[in-house]
Amino acid sequence: MAKRVESPSIGIDLGTTFGCVGVYKNGHVEIVPNVQGNRKTPACVALTHVERLIGEAADSQLAMNPLNTVFGVKRLLGRRLGDQSLESDQKWWPFKVVAETDGKPQICLSYKGKTVMFAPEDICAMVLSTLKDVAQAEAQPWTLCVIAGLNVIRTVPDTLLAGLTYCLEKRGARAAAGEEKVMVFDLGGGTLGVSLMTVGEGGMEVKAAGGDTHLGGEDFTNRLLQHLAEEFSRKHGRNVRWNARAMQRLRMASERAKRILSTITKAMVEIDSLYDDLDFRTTITRDRFEELNADLFQRCVSCVETTLKDAGVEKREVKEVVLVGGSSRVPKIQQMLSDLFGGKELCKSVNPDEAVAYGAAVQAATLEGSFRERAPVLRWTDVTPHALGIEVGGGMMDVVIPRNAPMPAKKELFFSAHIDNQPGMQINVFEGECRRAWDNRLLGSLDFGGLPPSPAGYARIFVNIEIDANYKIQVLAEERRTGMKKCVDIEPRGCLTKLEIARMVEEAERFKAEDRERKRTVDARNALEDLTKK
Ligand SMILES: Nc1ncnc2c1ncn2[C@@H]1O[C@H](COP(=O)(O)OP(=O)(O)OP(=O)(O)O)[C@@H](O)[C@H]1O
Ligand SMILES: [Mg+2]
Questions:
Q1: In what order do the strands lie in the sheet with 105-111?
Q2: Mean pLDDT of the chain
Q3: Are residues 148 and 13 in contact, defined by beta-carbon separation less than 8 angstroms?
Q4: How many CA atoms lie within 13 A of 100 on its CB side?
Q5: Of 294, 309, 329, at which residue does a domain stop?
Q6: How many angstroms separate the alpha carbon of residue 354 from the centre of ligand 1?
Q7: Of all helices (H) and strands (E), which one includes residue 124?
Q8: Where is this region: Disordered (predicted)?
Q9: What number does the ligand 1 atom closest to the CA of 191 have?
């Protein structure tokens, strides 16, 4: 009898700082090392005079080629230049970011004396393509690939995948435990994801999801970098920030020191000839590092509190707090979390770097029907990632659809003209949690002008705001006495749809084909040169 051959299934976690690949085959998940033998691949791309480098090859030459090495760009996805959070990132990036006409950011690099522009999606696609190569070396032919880490609407949330990993690891103990509430806290390089889920016989379900798409280990490193740069300036009277190469060397030292401070309470920083042949030697204590980041750490804890509130769950009801993501290793954050839950011991049993990729591989295998054990059924409702509101009198934001509302969602509002002969009104739609409208992100505007002259209170404008399952927003305004109507569609920002991911993967294949073509040209040229030398 013919035996069904199971083809491997792939899970990829594309993070802000690292990518990780899991493959499910022969009944278990393996995290696949890249060609350098590492289980995580830096999400870094560089252009040199002759070639394009991705992953470790790009990361390792950052200090030599700072202006042409790109990292952390996942933070640019879905953002516009001018967004407050982007401006603070830009300060620390050695590469140049410029705006397209519609404000979309473009990364500006130079290649063979020419300026070349890349959309952040292009850079992510290049990293993704490399991660696919890592997977393919281990799993050929593969069938299904689940991509996580991209803050995607309408696909399994990363925190749920990490929760799945936790659940499978704890399977034995869990079977008889009944339904429990579990919190997953995923603090990576660029983002914090917090989910409150129920785990039980019936499967796993996300009750509330929260976090911050702009809070992570990169920010902690930047704070340390700023501190060290200031110290160097104080000691030597030179502003090291003017030198991109020196700044990147200092960044690498900051990253190293930050990690050391997760294990011991003091770290040495020693860099020879950092700037103008001046050596830099100093020490940094864990206490100082914690002071430098106090507000950021507090924000992490506040996100947890908000998620609990959104879920309507008391702290004491939470059975387990599962730590995921490289930055969840920071001792102060662990202590603050533990304190929040009344001195609770946190769950560190899943591998914080690999839990999402592992869960993604299991999910791929489950979708394929090849997962051999009984995987818990995953349930979640796509919810709005932020509150959605419009600007009202005094520049305040009036929340129309709250954060964490199940999608699709809609709401109708009513306005009347409040002065005589008011010619119209502008409806500004924002996304965010701040009380002042302009502290949030402006998503779009509807200019409802051209109202015929009438006394105050006569014009009655109904505004209908609708969010579909893909987080596309439609704003429809109607003045019912005159029948005037106007509508505007707003594309989702800050998170991607499944369709966009599919496009990115396609793009990645195109880039790969281009690389192959370039390699063929280089090989041909080398062969020709060899021939002429003979
Ligand atoms: N021992 C450590 N102490 C402190 N921070 C650490 C440690 N190890 C790793 N990190 C930090 O963890 C971050 C990377 O974590 P991770 O790989 O989970 O992020 P990511 O998945 O790439 O990003 P994201 O999930 O935010 O998109 C980096 O900022 C790194 O500095
Ligand atoms: Mg991550």
A1: 96-99, 105-111, 114-118
A2: 88
A3: yes
A4: 11
A5: 294
A6: 11
A7: helix 120-138
A8: 512-534
A9: 26
**Rounded distance from Cα 427 to ligand 2 centre (Å):** 36
CA distances (Å), 9 to each of 128, 215, 363, 533, in order? 16, 31, 9, 48
Here the CATH number for the domain that contains residue 460 is: 2.60.34.10
**Is residue 445 included in any domain, yes or no?**
yes
Measured between alpha carbons, how far is residue 341 from residues 254, 296, 335 in Å? 31, 19, 10
Q: Which two tokens stand for residue 56?
A: 């470790």
Residues near 68 by Cβ (< 8 Å), separated by ≥ 6? 46, 47, 48, 95, 109, 110, 111
- How many distinct structural domains can be found in the chain? 2
* 17 Cβ below 6 A of ligand 1: yes
CA distance 425 to 439: 21
Q: Which of 467, 16, 436, 442 is nearest to 211 (CA)?
A: 16
The answer to the question of residue 506 being in a domain is no
What single-letter amino acid sits at 135? A
Among the three residues 490, 513, 528, which one is the final residue of a domain in this structure? 490
In whole angstroms, what is the distance from residue 279 CA to residue 357 CA?
41
CA distances from 347 to 176, 185, 186, 224, 369 (A): 19, 10, 12, 28, 30
- Which domain CATH number covers 285? 3.90.640.10
Q: Which domain holds residue 287?
A: 217-294
Atom 13 (ligand 1): residue with closest C-alpha? 189
Q: Which of 188-192, 368-372, 422-426 has the highest mean pLDDT?
A: 188-192
Write out pLDDT tens, residues 149-173: 887 777 788 999 999 999 998 865 5
Domain presence at residue 282: yes
Where does the pLDDT of residue 531 fall: very low under 50, low under 70, confident under 90, or very high at 90 and above?
A: low
Q: Quick check: is 534 in a domain?
A: no
Nearest partner of 101 among 86, 81, 83, judged by Cα: 81
